[in-house]
Structures are given as structure tokens and as C-alpha cells.
Amino acid sequence: MTPGGKALAEFVAEATEILDALGRDLLALDEARGQEADPEHINGIFRAAHSLKGLSGLFGQERISQLAHAAEDLLDRLRLGRLTLDDQVLDTLVDALDTFQALLGEASRTEEGADLSQRTRDMEDRMARLGSPPPAVEEDPLERLELDATVRAVFTEYEEHRLRENVRRGVALWRVRAAFDLTDFDQGLADLNARLKPLGEVISTLPSSRPGGSTGIAFDLIFGAKVAAHALEAALRGTPAELAPLAVRPPVEGSPGPAFDMPPPPSGREETDAELLLAADTDEEEPDEGSAPPGGSTSLATVPVTPVGSPPRMRAVAPPSTVVGLQAAASAPIPAGRPKVEETSLRSLTQTVRVDIGRLDGLINMVGELLLIKANLQRLAETSRQDGTVALSKLFGQELSRETRQLERKLEALQEGLLEARMVPVGQVFDKLARLVRKIAREAGKEIDFVSSGGEVELDKLIVEELSDPLMHLIRNAIDHGAEGPEARLSAGKPRRAVVRLRAEQKGNHVVISVSDDGSGIDEVRVREVALSRGLVTPSQVSEMTRRELLNLIFLPGFSTRSSVSSLSGRGVGLDVVKNNLGNLSGIIDVWSERGKGTAFHLTLPVTLAIVRALVVGVSGRTYAVPLNSVLEILSVQPRDIRTVERREVLDLRGQTLPFLRLGRLFHLPEREVNRHFVVVVGLAQQRLGIAVDELFGQQDIVTKPLGGRLSRVKGISGATDLGNRRTVLVLDVAELLEEGIAQERRRA
Amino acid sequence: MSRFEALLDAFFYRPDEDVGGLLDFAAGSDDLAQPLLEEEPVEYLAFRLEAECYAVPILSVREICKVPLLTEIPRAEPQLLGVMNLRGELLPVYDVKLRLRLSEVPPLVAGPDAGLPPRAARILVLKTDDGPAGVWVDSVAGVVRLKPSMVELSPAGLRGDRDCVAGLGRKGSQLYILLDPEQALSP
């Protein structure tokens, strides 16, 4: 890779992460549409846009950088309360995210399409035009807060805005005062913040007037609590924090009476200190900067100054000295103004290392080779142990086999660790899909509630990547074909909004992901008609099909139940593609549907494809490997136990009929006379199949290598592996074999 | 014959080994009476299939290896002999004789019933658009340098319906059938 290419890859990786974070916050905002927006999320988006601007600037990605700049402006106005977060703004932000993703896509291919450039410029204009100021308020709620003006003076515009919001919403405000030792105050403060975070919002952190002892430092945290006083107290037990409520006047005009006894008003000397503090604090937006002359004793009247463009408010009546004397920095012990915890260390915040999946693949392959060497060692140890003629050799053999067992254990640990490193939560895909749902629903004119669960279930990174397209397609289907429009739903006696669910669940060695809706369900009569009219099945076949088999016809190539191709689902990609994609992951798909109740697709997938334990079997002198995660049991069967039902061979397994497939016959291998078969019973989801083989050779851990592009059309084989001694052994694709077994059953008619 | 003897045997020159291509190559380089036209000769790898001599551009050959154990792929197209493991890499191995109509049935070279491969047989690993692929040849003849003037583009439809013969090269009395690897291996 060229250095430029490498830098680009870095940029794309980093930018993708930022966009992911941005998307998550945006989604959270979207879910809380119509409610009070969580400032954390707005801040998160703001930070993401800011980082993206910096990053893209660094890499010379002009278009992304400019759009990020526009987005940052918009978000800054939002965050400072100059703009309210209404649907229009939210939609713009969601569209902006799409545009970012498209831009990033072009950047990664080093293209610069004119269409997208135009779209970017339109987007920038759109963001700039948004700007209805928030509804004017009668009185600045901040004025109702009994807070010393000198304290207010040191707030940044943002902190002031947040405080105002909290007062307006009637949130209980507290002053949390805590003293820490100078040596580890950053840690103590971080700990305190972590405890407070879940309970509400830390609006500002100020150095306290109260000296924290000879080697200490005290802080006042202005905190808006979501919980009751006793809960807050309980949460802070064990920390040096002291709580004091901040009084808020009721929002009636003209009753500025203080409610508590007040400490003496701050002296002029202290205010001077506060001014110095302000001057030092230049990296923050400071609307008040320089507004008060240093040393002036009248600073009480000069602050705060309304910044240009901020909502109109009455500022003249600063409350005449207040209850809770939050005296700002009477004796600020540290010179650099308010300490910012996050700046005390340059160490990065995460412990994560980003690794190319290709490297992990390489390591996994290496482990595979090591496992082969281990197997050879074991064999050596075994032979020399049994070779009992020489006493020395026997002793040596025992020693060797002991060491080999040690090696085996360590290798297993190594393998496990590597596999774990490849695991990522499926939530990564779910988040992306959740964003899509909104867009699709809007385009389709449906009202959808999207519910996802099990995002924490982990799958191999490669599988998760490959999953996103099939899942997207299924969700599109659910919204476009499954869910009815609001009116149709109401008349059917259902709630107006349709529910689309995405759920992941671990089941043993597999993960089951389901996409379901509570829509109209699949009309199997219609399915039958379409399948017949397209010539996909014959009338005689159809007449014998069960409902489930009929439903499964939708996976046949060339099937689409809608006569009019919609712009959403009907993009020429059918469910057969979804099914194929899953097949490549050794997974299977199953459909359930009930008229009027809804449809559900269940995807059963292996947790990993990298290293699997396999059963090594022999058929007509050939050797094959069967992944053990889909093997349910192994039977030994006499030829006379095999029955035929309508010319098809089946087995009777504890009263259940089990479809039976002779692997040799399926693969057109020369058949050998055997007096008994071994039947490997495989199963995925609800499907079961007995595969007859001649011999069983045992179990082995294998690294499956795909057969590659030239051989991708080969059926029933998922790849090949090496069992030592340089013999290449094919790995059976259980999902495909099951498929063929079922298809044979269908064909019998 | 022990394994070591077999290895040595494979290493040393055997009198019965076909090195015609090499001799041709040597003869060509000795021939100074070439036309003054400054032609860049192109190097080809020459090999034998049945009784005929074929050649592919040497730049399309990644390597030449002895015939390893081949694993047959069930239900594959007949010209796919099987897969081989080349230093951990999985490669498909093809037979082109079927396509060139040099034989009617694919040879039985993979699986438990296959005999030992002929001693001179080799697998050419060719670079193709779909990734590397092995091609079974009966023996490797050597490298031959052919100038464009020595190559005659083959009349369309010389052999088979898919035109995998790119042309004919003539050097001295020897005729080389130039194979188009992409065409020869296309499904």
C-alpha cells in the first residue's frame, strides 16, 4: 500500500468511528423526539462534528471538512440554546449524517463526484438557513436562581445556558462541595463526577472559596439532580462531598426576597481574584471577557453581559446578594483557573488497539499450523511411548507426551484469545440499521417503532460485516411489504404504529438473529400463485406442500410478491440473495408468518468461522470434515434400519422420521459395500438431517480456508482445511446439505 | 525406491527427460542471422500436452511445481481436477486437454483411486484475473523466446468453440501453440 493509501485508510477508519459515535447520539436524540433533548447527546454530536472537521482538514478532505464546519456551527447554536431542536433540525442532522457517509465513501475510493459536491453545498446552505430562535421567555430563569453574580460571571456561555435550562425545568439544583488532596485531586474529582453523572447533570465545576487544608483543594460543583435528595446523599456517601441546595425563586414577578440567611457579600478583594481567574480562562468562550475592569469594586453590576444573538432576557436585576454564597475562587489555589480533569493527562482515553482483521486472520492461520504441529508431536509421543522395547524410549515418550499436553493447553488458550479478539457486538450493525429504519419508514410513509435487543451478543467481525446487507434487506422488506400504513392498521384494529423488531440471541454455538414485524403477514395463497405463474414450481408439487414449505418458496430466485417494484425493496435483489449471503456464512434463514399477525425471519449463524472443531469422516476412501457445531449426534445404523417413504430413504430416530442422505451418493462417489453406516445427525434451527458416512476418524480443530473465487459455485463444500501430513480435506457445508436434503424432500412429489 | 532416491532422481537430469525446449532456446540465441528489425522477443514457457507443444507467456506463470496430492471436488465441472495445497495456499487445478479436445475423459488423478502421477507431469501455477490457478501439463519443455514476427495469430475458431488458442509460434522446425490462459481456464 502506498503511504498515501495508508494515510487514507487511517482517515477513513477514524472518520468512520467518529460518524458511528455521531450516529449513536443522533439516534438517541431521535428516539427521544418531542421530549427534552439530553444535552449529553447534543454535546456528543457537537464534539463529533468538531473532531471530524479537524481530522478531515488534516487529511485535506475539503468537502467533509466544510460540511463538518457547517454542522458544527449549527450544533453550537443548538447547544447554546439559540436554536431549538425541532423535527426540522433533527431531519437535517440525519440527512447530514447520510451525506457524510456518502462523502466518506467517495473519499475512500479517492473519487470526487460532482453530484455529491452539489449535495454537500445544498446541505451546508440548509444548515445555515436553519435558525428560528427559541421562543422568547418572559424572564430569564437564571435570574430566579439565588446565585452569586460573581459566580455567574465565571460561567461559560454554555454553562449559563445549561443552568438556565435546568432552572426553567424546575430541576433541583445542588452545590456539591468537595475537598481533595492536591496530589490526587484529579482522580477524586473524576470519581465524584462519575458518581454524579447517572444522577443528573454536572453543570459546572468551580474551585471553591473554602481552602481545602494546607495541601488540599476544594471544588464547588453545580449539579442538577434528577433524583431526590436522599438518593443523592446515599450516592455520595464515602466521598468528601458536602451537599447544599441552591434555592430558586418561584417564577412570580417582583418577589426577590431571599429565603435563607446569607453569608456576608463577597469583598472587593475576592472579586479581583475572580477577575484574574476569568482572564486566565481564555480557551473558553467567555462572553464576559474584559467586561469588568480589574480591581473595580462594582463588578457586581457589570456582569453578566448578554451575548449577541442570545435570547432576550432581563438582566438588570441581579438578585441582591444571595443565599448560598457561592463565592468564586476567593483564594484560588491553582493558577490556571478552573482545572479541567480531562486535560490533566495526555494519555489516551481508551485502551483499545485497532487491528486490521487481515492480521488477525494471519494469526489464526498461524495457530492452525501450530495445531497441526502439535498433532504431529502427539503422534510421535504416542508411538515412542508404546514402543516399549527400549526403556529409555518409553521414558522419553512419557516426558514428551506430558509436554505436548502442556503445549495443547497453551495453544487452546491462545486460540481462544485470538477468537475473542475477533468478536464484536452485533449492536454495531443494529445501530446502523436503526438509523436506516427512520429513513425507510419516511420514504414508505409508514409509522414504525423500531425495537432492537441483544445488541451485546458477540459474533466474529467478518460475520457481523457480512450480516449488515442481508439484515438491511430484511428490514426494508418488513417496512415496505410487512408493515401496513397507519390507516390500514387502525381499520384492522391494530395500534397505529407498526413495530419492527430486531433481536439477537445466543443459542449454544450459534447466534439467532430475528427480524420481525407485526404487519399483515405473508399471504401464502399469493405466494403459491406467483410461484406457479413464474414456473418456479409445478402444480403437483404445490399441492403437496405444507404451509411452511409454501412460505419458503419466497427464497427462490426470481420471486417477488409485489407486482409493482417499489423503490425500496424491489431493487432487483431478492430474498434468494439474502439466503445466499447467509449460506456463505454457514448460516440458514427460516421464515414464520401468520396472516394479520406478522412475519418473522430467523437467521441462525455460527459464532465464528475462523477455527472450528470438526468431525473427520470418511466416505468411499475420501476424507471430509464436518463442523461439530452443527452435529447433534452420531448413530450407527444397519442397512436394514433404513426405510423408504415414497422412495425416499429415512431413518426412524426415537419415533421421529429423519431424512437420510448418503454422502457418497450425493457426491457421485463409487459406492462401497458396507455392513453398517455411521449417520451424522446435523441440525440448524428446526431442520434435521442424517448424513451417512462410512468411517469416523475423530475430532480435530481446523482452520477453514475458503475455496476462493474460482470455486465459489461448488455446492455442499464450505472450504478446505489441512489435517497435517499436507493432505487437503474438504469441509462440508452443513447448511447447504440440509438445504439439499429438504429440497429432495420437496422434489419427491 | 526410497524417498531420498526419488528426490535425487527428480533433481538430476535423466536421459529420457524432454529438454527440447531448452535446446531450442539455445539454438535460437545462437542464431545471429536475424533480421535487423529491432524486435523485442517475448518469453514463453513451453510445455507438452499429449504429443503437442504448447506455450504461455512466461509473465503469466507464477511458478511450476510437481504434482502434489490433489483433492477432488465432488460435483465439480469435469475440467477441474481438484484442489491442491501449495505452502498453505489452496489452489484449483485444471485440465485443459478436455477443452483442447486432446482427450475425451478427464484423467483420474485425484482421490484415493488415482495412481501416482507420471514423473514428468507438472502443475503450472498461472496468474489469472480470478486469482491463481493450477494447470496440469504432461511435461515442461522450457523457456522459448519468440519475436512477434515468429508468431502467427491464429485463425479464428482454430480449435473448439471457445477460442483459447491465441496463435502459433514457429521457431526452427518446432511449432508452439500459444495458449490464452484466461480463455483456457474460463468456466
Automatic annotation (TrEMBL), chain A:
It is an enzyme of class 2 (transferase). Residues 611-743 form the CheW-like domain. Residues 1-107 form the HPt domain. GO terms for cellular component: cytoplasm. Keywords: Coiled coil, Kinase, Phosphoprotein, Transferase. One of its GO terms (biological process) is chemotaxis. InterPro entries: Bact_Chemotaxis_CheA (IPR051315), CheA-like_dim (IPR004105), CheA-like_homodim_sf (IPR037006), CheW-like_dom_sf (IPR036061), CheW-lke_dom (IPR002545), HATPase_C_sf (IPR036890), HATPase_dom (IPR003594), His_kinase_dom (IPR005467). CDD domains: CheA_reg (cd00731), HPT (cd00088). Its EC number is 2.7.13.3. Residues 247-318 are annotated as: Disordered. It catalyses: ATP + protein L-histidine = ADP + protein N-phospho-L-histidine. One of its GO terms (molecular function) is phosphorelay sensor kinase activity. Residues 397-424 form a coiled coil. Residues 348-609 form the Histidine kinase domain. The modification Phosphohistidine is found at residue 50. This is histidine kinase. The lineage of its organism: Bacteria, Pseudomonadati, Myxococcota, Myxococcia, Myxococcales.
From TrEMBL, chain B:
It holds the Pfam family CheW. SMART domains: CheW (SM00260). One of its GO terms (cellular component) is cytosol. Residues 41-187 form the CheW-like domain. GO terms for biological process: chemotaxis; signal transduction. PROSITE patterns: CHEW. This is Purine-binding chemotaxis protein CheW.
